[in-house]
Structures are given as C-alpha cells and as structure tokens.
C-alpha cells in the first residue's frame, strides 16, 4: 500500500507561503497495487522471478491554461509532501523439531567467543534480512527505463511486522499533471520493485517473505 500526503493552497500563493500561515488543506490518499500489470509496465519490469513488481494506478491531473505543473484544474497549488510504501513482512519462526533442535545445538557449539573475560557468556545473534525498494523510471532515451534505489530496511529474519519505505520521488513523479496530448504522467509510472536479501546478500523470493497484494478469487484486476 502506498500512502501519499499532499497540501493544497488556495489562491495565488505558493504552498510554502500557505503553510506558514496554516492556510492550507492536507489530503491523504491510499493506493493498493494492481493484481495485473499493464503491458507497458510489464515490459520494463524485472525478469528475475525473485523480484516483486508492484504497480499503483495513479491518474495525474491534466494541465489547463490556468493550471501550471503543480496546480490542479481549479488553479490551486498542490504539493506532494510525503509518500510511503507499507508492506507486511511475514516470516514466522518454524516450529522446532528434534532435527532442527539438534542443528541449533551443533551451531551453538561451533561459536567461539573472542573475549576471554566473557567466555562463559552466551549471546544470541539475530539474523537479519534486507528489504529494498527501487523505482522503475523512464530513461533519457524514448522507450527506455532505469532503476533507482529509493529505500532499504533490515528486519529480523523470523518476524511479522509492517515495514515502511520512503517512495516520495516516485509518488511526486506519478502525480505530476501532464499536458493534454502528452502521456508524461502515465509513462512515468512503471511501478516499484521489492527485493529481499539474506544476511549473506543472497537474493530470495520476495513473495515468500512479504505480503504484496490481495489477489484472491473474486478480486478485480486491471
């Protein structure tokens, strides 16, 4: 889920000026990933099945004669101030069996303490995975694209929690008004990529660790 916050300043003043006088309206909106990727978006997506490709349908406002790049059709100044991607990491610790318990004992027996003063102390090292979110944005040449890493967090391997990523640059680009007759806004939206890596930087199947979308039978696709 992507959460975007924008401020709308009425009249001819800029959003910054209205924020000083607290004369602005803050709007929040939530967007959920589509179950089916548009063909154009799919073509620019990753070929590695371990990576997750998310697409959020954002409809940019059209630029009119009275509305500039950061204005809506009513002439109000609109400025996107935050954009967060929230995904749920779901990887519970498996139930311990006699076999896994034996492996744990063997693993702990091989750990050696470097500090002689603390040789009898035991320390539990929590293995962590890294989750990274990248933005697929259009390239300099027509029909090309490139990836830009936006945010990354580490999370204990066995845990269940919400993760938040800063994706403001992508949300701002997706929300920019486009001139009539130009597909700037749509072409700029090629989605996000989610990658999960082990502590040894080994790429894992993202959809095995994080809940990305609800595409159960009966849910609408695009």
Task: Kindly describe this structure.
The protein has helices at residues 15-20, 39-43, 98-109, 168-175, 184-188, and strands spanning 2-9, 25-31, 52-54, 62-63, 77-91, 128-138, 145-156, 159-166, 178-179, 192-197, 203-204, 210-211. It has 222 residues and is of the alpha+beta class. The protein has a domain at 32-68 and 82-92 and 126-211: Immunoglobulin-like, CATH 2.60.40. The strands form three sheets. Strands 1, 2, 5, 8 and 12 form a five-stranded antiparallel β-sheet that branches. Strands 3, 6, 7, 10 and 11 form a five-stranded antiparallel β-sheet that branches. The radius of gyration is 23 Å and the shape is globular.
- CATH class of the domain at 32-68 and 82-92 and 126-211 equals Mainly Beta
How much of the sequence lies in strands comes to 35-45%
Secondary-structure-based class equals: alpha+beta
| Number of strand segments | 12
What level of helicity do the residues show?
10-25%
List the helices and strands in order: EHEHEEEHEEEHEHEEE
CATH architecture of the domain at 32-68 and 82-92 and 126-211: Sandwich
């Amino acid at each position: 889920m992507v959460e975007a916050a924008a401020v709308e300043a009425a009249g001819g003043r800029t959003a910054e000026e209205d924020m000083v006088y607290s004369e602005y309206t803050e709007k929040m909106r939530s967007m959920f990933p589509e179950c089916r990727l548009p063909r154009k978006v799919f073509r620019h997506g990753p070929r590695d099945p371990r990576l997750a490709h998310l697409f959020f349908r954002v409809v940019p406002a059209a630029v009119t004669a009275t509305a500039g790049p950061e204005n809506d059709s009513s002439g109000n100044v609109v400025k996107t101030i935050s954009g967060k991607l929230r995904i749920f990491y779901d990887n519970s610790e498996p139930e311990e069996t006699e076999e896994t318990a034996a492996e744990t004992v063997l693993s702990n027996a091989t750990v050696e303490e470097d500090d002689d003063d603390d040789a009898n102390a035991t320390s539990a090292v929590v293995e962590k995975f890294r989750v990274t979110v990248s933005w697929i944005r259009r390239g300099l040449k027509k029909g090309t694209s490139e990836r830009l890493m936006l945010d990354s967090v580490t999370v204990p391997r066995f845990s269940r929690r919400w993760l938040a990523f800063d994706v403001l640059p992508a949300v701002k680009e997706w929300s920019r008004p486009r001139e009539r007759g130009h597909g700037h806004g749509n072409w700029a939206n090629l989605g996000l990529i989610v990658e999960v890596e082990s502590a040894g930087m080994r790429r894992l199947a993202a959809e095995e660790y994080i809940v990305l979308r609800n595409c159960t039978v009966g849910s609408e696709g695009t």
